[in-house]
Amino acid sequence: MDERARCLHQDAIVVDTHCDTLLRVLGRSFYQQQQKPYRLAERHEEGHIDLPRLREGGVNVQFFAAYIEPIYKPDRALKRAMQIFDAFFSELEANSDSMMLATTVQDIMTAKKQGKVAAVLAIEGGEALEGDLGVLRMFHRLGVRSIGLTWNERNDIADGVGDARSNGGLSAFGAAVIAEMNRLGILVDVSHLSDAGFWDVVEISKHPIIASHSNARAVCNHRRNLTDEQIKALAKNGGVMGMNFAAGFVKEDGQATLDDLLDHIDHIVQLVGPYHVGLGSDFDGISATPDGLGNVSAMPLITEGLVKRGYSDEHIRLILGENYLRVLREVWG
């Protein structure tokens, strides 16, 4: 590996704003039941993320999503979220020497200094709130610092991309959720949200928003990716979008490479500059990755690829994590 890229990646703050690894800890991958337990301390042949491979990949900040599967919606969503939180905190306790909960930027800096992974607790699917702002406030007390408003379906907050045919955006409850998330200091995540919902959020949110795991639709025409107009609006809002490693979101035929992923970064940088793009792998929630990015240990190859494409050290640091740190400082306080 190029020495400049190696040193740069090692020194930078590397942030990944989405993975579904907690499902594996609970005993099932995103797609099926597992045959054996999955502990973060152990290196695994299957899956994309564990602590040994996070260290190899130089990832300093990992967002762990509590993904609420459709079978638990709507009446068991809150209980399922609590089960996932329990798995998350059990792993934190078991691996206190190598990972720690991060609810502030100072926590992230402390973890970096101590050589630990800063673990951020997130939710993917606002069904977990079960229509109650009190639950949202309790989630914040538990350490939740980012919430994806929808998955693909409609819920009582908004329409997901799978229900976009209705052209529905935020409900009245959804607008109240955004306001309360702003007040509490929880990131508003628009990945999976319908286009109409996206525009409602941009209008309502007083804080920068994120699209934790979404690419550029102009490069790969998939509904899960953002249009150029959405990217411009997100940039004007001060937000950041994390590049998703799902092969089908990177290239329409699904035959994606690292260079194809870098093409998305190039497009966004050319459109709005280098201040609004980051990484949001979607590891352990995707069935196929770009060639060369088979798991989190391959993260340094992104830095090497950016070096080869002529990006400055300053801009590479922004993309790897400093853009997200800027947003976290503003939203988390």
Q: What's this entry about, in short?
A:
With 333 residues, the protein is an alpha/beta fold. It has one domain: Metal-dependent hydrolases (TIM Barrel, Alpha-Beta Barrel). The protein has 13 helices and 9 strands.
Major sheet summary line = 6 strands, parallel
Number of beta strands: 9
Helical content stands at: 40-55%
Query: What is the CATH third-level topology name?
Result: TIM Barrel
The CATH superfamily label reads: Metal-dependent hydrolases
Question: What form results from the Cα inertia axes?
Answer: globular
What is the mean pLDDT? 96
Could you state the order of secondary-structure elements as H and E? HEHHEHEHEHEHEHEHEHHEHH
Summed up, the helix count is: 13
Tell me the β content.
5-15%
Structural class: alpha/beta
**What is the CATH-assigned architecture?**
Alpha-Beta Barrel
Stretches with pLDDT under 50, minimum 5 residues: none
CATH top level is: Alpha Beta
Domain unit count: 1
- Cα-to-Cα separation, first versus last residue: 37 Å
Give the C-alpha Rg: 18 Å
